Task: inverse folding
């Protein structure tokens, strides 16, 4: 009985089980079908979309920065080089806890607040995701190994090599070549979209000097590469690459050897020297002293170093003295004298009887002879233009300037570059002031007074000129009126560079070309006319230059000048670091060119020297100019004047020898 | 023992000329199941080789686990399932004790405190034991009672299922708890539980889920649910896995990117590419056809499992084989559905493909039981 009941039950149970099993089979099939449909949706219908997503995940376009063009001096010596450094960089997407990581680095390699501030600035810039941002430039080997050892604690932190600018001459080229530094927000904003794209991989941009002027040449064209990156941002493969086009190499007219010599010639003085190759207009030396180390700016100057540079109100190392104006003093006299000849106000025979002062008709004020102020008084007596130049007679020029009038003076002087920037590629150079009626009305709101003309006649008053302008003007006399506009760039990628000059400066034409010879003679006397029995009849720079070096193998033409210090700030007066009376001393100036009055060779170099608080142009700035000229003519060009004379025509030699 | 079996046996004997089948029967191995499993293992090693970026150590360890699994399967299949049936209550008791022990001395790994690491013994997970023990126990309990099960039997069944599941949840291993519970539930379902109870239970679960979500679920579980509905809610956080996995699958297309050519996997965009998300690697490199091939292999094993359950000699064997087969399917489906975005992310491996030694050996114990069901009692009189 029981067995039969069990058997029947068994059958029913098995049927029940089989039904359930069958149902399970159907469900399995349906669920798999749902899965397959989902896969069809993902892999077939949405395949294109997900393929694109997958490529977007792994493929990244990144910039390949071009190598910045190198800068050479005229002899191929490097003035700006690219040197490899190792940077600490951050890929912020991979950093788990930035604050903690920075704290670790602080302890590890002494990361400073300054570093972090600069890093935060860099992070503000447009940035491709997963690209690295420099945290600290130039790691030492010790720092590198510390980072490497602790790499596992620092996800997203890497050490990357980079080429950065290096200036082998350091301070020497700080102003002329200038420097590059990190691109800032404002610079990026001011760029066009295309050039912003071109700077996608670049951290640095030229800020001053040549680096800025020729930024477009130096930078080059950015390249691209498509890379495959993994989930951690590591580059696994390079798939495609468009090579960057390196920036062009610049060859400057600057001669490193002369630059070094010029800087040394200034000695402990603050000042500026500009030397121009008169045959080309090329600037062969351009020194502003004291300067600063431009290499500091390349990798981000620390705020401490920077504040030292900007707070030094006496040395003002960041201030470029070559392109900023000062009162030119007597150095303008040769130009004014030429103007007098050209306009028929004086001739070779014209002379005044100098009482030692000048007085405008109907005005009781006496313009004293500035150069005689500290001496016994009295005047130069009978003085023609020649003597007025070599003795630097103020009275003569007060009279000449007064008779010429400011309009004629302005018109003639401007042809030598005063009040203008003749430089082809130094756009940042200041123009100084060549005063005129219009200028005074616009800037001062006052009419021009006759006394203003008198002041301007000796380069004081409103007259301001830069050492660059003075050197340029001197080179125009050296070239007998031919204007060779001063320029920095000599060659581009080894090929001679001919700048496109839209409005070429016309040559200075004077009524009689002999005026040039005459003025060259007058300026040569400044240096070479010796002491004699005649009262005040020697060249102002004779004692300091020609007498100091009796074996001078060549003659140089020059003109000294001194400029009154306009004002000293109360801060400096209160400072105890320096003898304030030294700061009250006049600025000494000297313009010159050489060789002068040489029948065999044209003048090769024009130099303007400015010595801050140098007191006397003739005794302080003059010898400095002579040292620069010596260095160029004798050491660099290695001109053998004795051999030239021997080989030369004896007849001409005699005609020159009557001095 | 009973007539039906006797008739089936005698007809089996009358099918002369199939000596090879009898040899397989002698060593208690089911050739179709073995073929299906072996193909799956082979394919799995192949995919794992790529997923592990060609790391031979990973593949060797996985292969070794599979060999160990095969041996264990062979040993298990030598015993009649009735041997395990008699041991089921004791194994269950021991399993519960070990689960209790885990709560006290357990070792935590990957957020779940589920390992026991006793000195001198290899470390193991007591919850793995439960995966095998629960089907055995439920089949033992329900097969000897009239079917469909009475309400009081159901009550005890549910209690027996929930007790270990609750202990495993306490270990913070919800995925395993669900699997263990489901292996018991499958026995109850196959045993013929009335539909109205099933529906009532289903509705109750549905109603309870919001409450679970609001009051019981942990934050990461809530996130998983939210992410399931909108992966782009947090694309770099909670949604990252599923987004990258879908990108991998979708970019694979019909034919795939080719073996070891999957950019998503080899550039490490797929998380857990060796374990839970290995299907994404497979789908990316072998495409839709590759996944279809894998589904066919699984289907083959499942069909064979169902056949073994269908042709089993007694209700215990049927319930056991049915439950093991359905549990296997559940594993497969939940993982594939999760990786392709059909289900929320639950941390479960893809059987025989994902890396993981313990889980593989447990699977093989299940296959051993299936083979035991198929090869014992048909040819020999008990």
Result:
């Amino acid at each position: 009985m029981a067995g039969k009941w069990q058997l029947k039950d068994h059958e029913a149970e098995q049927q029940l089980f089989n039904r359930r099993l069958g149902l399970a089979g159907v469900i399995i099939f349906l669920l798999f079908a749902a899965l397959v449909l989902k896969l069809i949706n993902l892999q077939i219908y949405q395949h294109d979309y997900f393929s694109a997503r997958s490529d977007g995940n792994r493929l990244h376009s990144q910039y390949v920065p071009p190598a910045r063009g190198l800068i050479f001096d005229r002899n191929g010596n490097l003035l700006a080089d690219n040197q490899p450094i190792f940077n600490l960089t951050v890929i912020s997407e991979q950093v788990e806890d930035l604050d903690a990581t920075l704290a670790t680095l602080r302890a590890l390699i002494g990361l400073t607040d300054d570093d972090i501030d600069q890093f935060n600035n860099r992070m503000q810039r447009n940035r491709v995701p997963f690209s690295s941002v420099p945290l600290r430039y130039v790691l030492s080997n010790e720092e590198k190994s510390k980072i490497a050892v602790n790499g596992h604690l620092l996800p997203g932190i890497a050490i990357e090599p980079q080429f950065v600018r290096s200036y082998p001459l350091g301070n020497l080229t700080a102003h002329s070549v200038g420097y590059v530094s990190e691109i800032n927000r404002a610079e990026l904003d001011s760029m066009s979209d295309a050039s912003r794209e071109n700077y996608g991989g670049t951290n640095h941009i030229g800020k001053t000097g040549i680096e800025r002027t020729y930024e477009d040449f130096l930078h080059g064209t950015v390249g691209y590469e498509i890379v495959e990156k993994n989930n951690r941002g590591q580059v696994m493969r390079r798939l495609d690459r468009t090579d960057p086009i390196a920036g062009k190499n610049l060859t400057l007219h600057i001669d490193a050897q002369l630059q070094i010599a010029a800087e040394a010639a200034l000695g402990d003085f603050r000042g500026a020297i500009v030397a121009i190759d008169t045959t080309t207009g090329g600037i062969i030396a351009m020194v502003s002293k004291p300067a600063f180390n431009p290499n500091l700016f390349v990798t981000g100057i620390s705020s401490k170093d920077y504040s030292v540079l900007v707070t030094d109100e006496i040395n003002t190392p960041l201030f470029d003295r070559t392109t900023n104006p000062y009162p030119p003093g007597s150095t303008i006299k040769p130009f004014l004298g030429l103007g007098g000849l050209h306009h028929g106000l004086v001739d070779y025979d014209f002379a005044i009887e100098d009482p030692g002062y000048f007085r405008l008709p109907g005005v009781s004020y006496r313009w004293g002879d500035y150069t005689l102020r500290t001496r016994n008084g009295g005047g130069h007596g009978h003085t023609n233009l020649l003597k007025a130049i070599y003795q630097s007679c103020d009275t003569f020029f007060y009279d000449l300037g007064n008779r010429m009038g400011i309009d004629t003076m302005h018109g003639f002087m401007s042809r030598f570059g005063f009040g203008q920037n003749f430089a082809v590629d130094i756009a940042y150079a200041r123009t100084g002031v060549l005063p005129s009626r219009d200028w005074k009305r616009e800037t001062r709101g006052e009419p021009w007074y006759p006394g203003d003309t008198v002041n301007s006649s000796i380069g004081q008053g409103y007259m301001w000129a830069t050492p660059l302008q003075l050197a340029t003007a001197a080179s125009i006399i050296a070239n007998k009126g031919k204007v060779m506009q001063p320029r920095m760039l000599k060659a581009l990628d080894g090929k001679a560079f001919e700048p496109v000059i839209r409005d070429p400066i016309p040559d200075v034409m004077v009524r009689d070309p002999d005026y040039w010879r005459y003025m060259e003679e007058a300026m040569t006397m400044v240096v070479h006319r010796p002491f004699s029995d005649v009262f005040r009849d020697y060249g102002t720079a004779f004692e300091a230059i020609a007498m100091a070096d009796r074996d001078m193998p060549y003659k140089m033409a020059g003109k000294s000048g001194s400029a009154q210090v306009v004002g000293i700030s109360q801060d400096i007066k209160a400072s105890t670091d320096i003898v304030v009376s030294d700061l009250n001393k006049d600025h000494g100036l000297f313009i010159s060119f050489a060789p002068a009055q040489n029948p065999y060779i044209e003048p090769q170099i024009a130099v303007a020297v400015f010595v801050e608080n140098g007191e006397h142009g003739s005794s302080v700035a003059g010898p400095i100019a002579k040292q620069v000229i010596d260095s160029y003519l004798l050491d660099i060009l290695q001109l053998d004047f004795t051999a030239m004379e021997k080989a030369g025509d004896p007849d001409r030699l005699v005609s020159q020898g009557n001095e | 023992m009973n007539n039906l079996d006797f008739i089936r046996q005698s007809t089996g004997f009358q099918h002369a000329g199939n000596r090879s089948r009898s040899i397989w029967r002698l060593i208690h191995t089911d050739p179709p199941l073995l073929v299906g499993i072996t193909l799956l293992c082979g394919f799995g090693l192949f995919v794992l080789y790529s997923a592990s970026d060609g790391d031979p150590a990973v593949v060797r360890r996985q292969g070794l686990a599979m060999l160990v699994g095969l041996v264990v399967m062979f040993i298990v299949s030598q015993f009649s399932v009735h041997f395990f049936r008699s041991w089921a209550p004791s194994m269950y008791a021991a399993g519960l004790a070990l689960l209790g022990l885990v709560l006290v001395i357990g070792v935590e790994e990957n957020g779940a405190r589920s390992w026991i690491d006793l000195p001198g013994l290899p470390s193991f997970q007591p919850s793995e034991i439960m995966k095998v023990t629960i089907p055995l126990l439920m089949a033992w309990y329900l097969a000897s009672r009239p079917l469909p099960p009475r309400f009081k039997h159901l009550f005890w069944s549910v209690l027996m299922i929930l007790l270990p599941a609750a202990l495993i949840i306490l270990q913070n291993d919800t995925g395993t708890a669900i699997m263990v519970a489901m292996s018991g539930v499958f026995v109850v379902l196959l045993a013929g539980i009335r539909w109205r109870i099933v529906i009532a239970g289903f509705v109750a679960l549905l109603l309870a889920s919001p409450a679970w979500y609001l009051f019981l679920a942990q934050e990461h579980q809530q996130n998983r649910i939210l992410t399931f509905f909108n992966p782009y809610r947090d694309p770099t956080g909670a949604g990252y896995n599923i987004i990258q996995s879908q990108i991998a699958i979708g970019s694979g297309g019909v034919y795939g990117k080719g073996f070891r050519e999957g950019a998503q996997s080899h550039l490490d965009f797929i998380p857990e590419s060796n374990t839970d998300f290995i299907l994404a690697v497979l789908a990316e490199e072998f495409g839709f056809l590759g996944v279809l091939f894998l589904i066919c292999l699984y289907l083959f094993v499942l069909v064979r499992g169902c056949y073994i359950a269908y042709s089993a000699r007694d209700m215990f064997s049927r319930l056991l084989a049915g439950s093991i087969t359905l549990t296997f399917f559940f594993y497969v489906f939940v993982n594939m559905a999760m990786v392709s975005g059909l289900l929320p992310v639950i941390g479960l491996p893809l059987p025989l493909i994902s890396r993981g030694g313990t889980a593989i050996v447990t699977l093989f114990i299940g296959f051993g039981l299936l083979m035991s069901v198929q090869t014992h009692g048909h040819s020999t009189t008990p």
